[in-house]
């Protein structure tokens, strides 16, 4: 699609067509899956032409595959990025991106309610290679600026975060980063390119766990990093050595999922807001965290920089651990499990799953109380999700 056309074409159309020309292999309508590890050369002239311009064709699966290239082009188009690399998981995207940016002796800054594994990687693994990491409390912008040193390479944060859906003021982040000449990275998984567009705020790199909304069916793992060409090029080079490739079939499933991406996100935004309002009004619920609820501490930032609140609704029930367990055991349709952004509604109980190995005191310090739940609203009828929650609340009370 030409640049001029791209700006006037809607997200639903781009989710289906962007990054791929008409006239596919064997006139196939859908994207072919190039299930091959190797691409062959016709003759020595073919080899010479390839070495003159390596972008013109493919050589070996770890260096690229046509199905993967189409996914990269399509995601870049949707995020409004110059370039994109697709990975075998969101964590592969995050770790490869970070490793391509840092050298021994560098320092990085990350906010404290980032994804647990991202924090673990920055805090523990990078340390082994002499890279220092400062973790700052989310939303404390003075502390964030104060943490920046001469050798700080970048600031990393999620927005919104997990599970409290805190929203980073991206304009302010950009201002602080520019003042100190450091790069900015945003994990925008929970927002998606529909609800939030960090690159338009001047953020340097955006990562996604494409396992979530982008693929949308809870059936694959995938990840992506997006940004300017000059920043993406070294990430792509390292990716070729790290080998965290998405396999071509998986990539096809990502492309297939993307076809309904805007429809799904819109439905999930609407459903989640209705469910958040239902929960807020429910007598058995103590507190609800949802960025598009007026009661959320970052409501006005969310309204300014996002177009929808997304599918994740976090809430605290009244009662104790036993009440929480009875509630979980009473759900009939909503599955108990991690992840979000897919067709099936899912619920997680951080106290007994992601923080099971923390002491109760440590958990409470982090706000992970016994009755905290993270609901990932799926694509079922909103009324059916509410009805399942209502019945479970009633049973948990007894
Ligand atoms: C915000 C966020 N970023 C990154 C990841 C990691 O993605 P993946 O599971 O695809 O490796 C997750 C996983 O849940 C996540 O929630």
Mean pLDDT over the full residue set: 95
- Identify low-pLDDT runs: none
What gross morphology would you assign? globular
β-strand amount:
5-15%
* Total beta strand runs: 12
Architecture of the largest domain in CATH? 3-Layer(aba) Sandwich
Bound molecules: pyridoxal-5'-phosphate
Spatial gap, N to C terminus: 59 Å
Computed over alpha carbons, the radius of gyration is 22 Å
Largest sheet: 7 strands, mixed
Essential attributes:
single chain, 398 residues, alpha/beta, Aspartate Aminotransferase, domain 2, Aspartate Aminotransferase, domain 1, 2 domains, seven-stranded mixed β-sheet, five-stranded mixed β-sheet, 12 strands, binds pyridoxal-5'-phosphate
